[in-house]
Amino acid sequence: MLKVYLAGEIHSNWREEIIESCKKEKLDVQFLFPVTDHESSDNCGVEILGEEEKNFWKDRKGANINSIRTKKSIQKSDVIIVKFGEKYKQWNAAFDAGYAAALNKSIIVIHNDDHQHALKEVDAAASAVATDQKQAVRILKYVLKGSL
């Protein structure tokens, strides 16, 4: 079984696309991912630890709690797929890629050509740079089955 962490933007259904495609291909993959409910992710700190007057401290509490899940999941994973979407800048995704690289994890990056220059350092740390989810699934299939 291959453990795959799906890092990156949370504003589209790209994770579901990868999970469903892997099921169709009958790939033995276990997926891990961050909390993808934006409100829960943003508010977990103040919901659990109490309100804050300033957004800085609200965000800090949430980020610290979310980092527990992220670090644990990346450490447990064999492959990290990092998706950079088109609408928002995903600084957290770049950080996840850097953390994975520091742990010597295999990284597959997904982004469009418009992001090539901005993500050149992330791309350089990756084992593969894909332009869509289909390519990422084909990589997983090749890794697991040795077939195209």
Keywords:
5-stranded parallel sheet; Rossmann fold; 148 residues; single chain; 51% helix; alpha/beta; 6 helices; 16% strand
Task: Describe the structure in your own words.
The chain is α/β, with parallel strands linked by helices and 148 residues long. It has one domain (2-36, 75-145): 3-Layer(aba) Sandwich (Rossmann fold), CATH 3.40.50. Helices cover 51% and strands 16% of the residues. The protein contains 6 helices and 5 strands; from the N terminus they run βαβααβαβαβα. The chain has helices spanning 14-24, 38-49, 55-76, 91-102, 120-125, 133-145, and strands at residues 2-8, 29-32, 79-83, 106-110, 128-130. Strands 2-1-3-4-5 form a 5-stranded parallel beta sheet, sandwiched between helices. Strand 4, helix 5 and strand 5 (128-130) form a beta-alpha-beta unit. Helix 1 (14-24) packs parallel to helix 6 (133-145) and helix 2 packs across helix 3 (55-76). It is globular and about 55 Å long. It starts with a strand and ends with a helix. The mean pLDDT is 95.
